[in-house]
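[Q] Does anyone have a clean structure-token version of this?
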Amino acid sequence: MKKFLLVLLPIVLLAVLTAYFGQTKLANRQNDTDVLHQEATKADNYAIELLIDSYQKSLVHAVNNNNFILLGNLLLPDSNFYYVQKEFVEGQYQQGITMEIKDYDILDIVEGESEGVYRVYVVETISKKSIGSAPVEEELRCIFTVVNNDEVLVISAKEEWF
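[A] Here you go.
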């Protein structure tokens, strides 16, 4: 539980600071909507980048320790993706597979047609190791769908990107 709070606290603090400073900037620059939009987009992008980083680290922890709690908190509750990830973590752990994120790059963050929906284009290099075998690296190109769920950004989907 303490680890969960340590991971959640920076995310909550970032959200509070972003909301506070965003409102201050809004009050000071009401006439400059272009600047406001750019600043809001930068704040949203930063929060999304933190979410993807947390996802990458939490996925590795979940698979290697069969502990889905931290990862589950980053996902849209009761979504198909939530249950797919939960089964993935359990399956990898039961097969004795460990993983490591070697690298990942967020190539682009695109605001979706609906407000509060973003598509995040990511290239990640993952190393997986089965018991008694050498690690195997693979590069994955994927698109994360990030949504605003009750004022909290969460991941609702992940799909391959070719």
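[Q] Thanks! Anything notable?
[A] The chain has one domain: 2-160.
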